[in-house]
Amino acid sequence: MIKNLKSLRVSAGMSQQQLADVIGVSQQSVNKYENHSIEPDVATLIKIADYFGVTVDYLIGHANEREAERRGITDEEFSIVSNYRKLSQKERESIFLIMKVYTRENQS
Predict the structure, then answer these.
(1) How far apart are CA 80 and CA 83, in angstroms?
(2) What is the pTM of this model?
């Protein structure tokens, strides 16, 4: 069982199926990772940790400090990154263009 997986997924507003799609496994696998003594392979653990912006140590319950794993970003920034990762490539490109426009305007 991955100790912090369910809380990360729920706080990101994701279903098990949405997470499964992101990391390339079945919904049943995510359920087993959360609720049973089934552990994913190392590559899958890394995908999950990268997606949520935490370390593998935090994900498996070896580290208690979630904020440290966020590499110093605020809760709001973490939420933005989490939501950005849920977007399609085309949606990400649109958001990126919007950000470029706003950052250019703020530099003037």
Answers:
(1) 5
(2) 0.61
Contact criterion met (CB below 8 Å) for 12 and 52: yes
DSSP labels for the chain? --TTHHHHHHHTT--HHHHHHHHTS-HHHHHHHHHSS----HHHHHHHHHHHT--HHHHTTS---HHHHTTT--HHHHHHHHHHHTS-HHHHHHHHHHHHHHHHHHH-
The closest of 61, 82, 84, 60 to 70, measured between CA atoms, is 82
Q: Give the whole-angstrom CA distance, residue 16 versus residue 88.
A: 18
In whole angstroms, what is the distance from residue 9 CA to residue 7 CA? 5
pLDDT tens for residues 39-59? 899 999 999 988 888 888 888
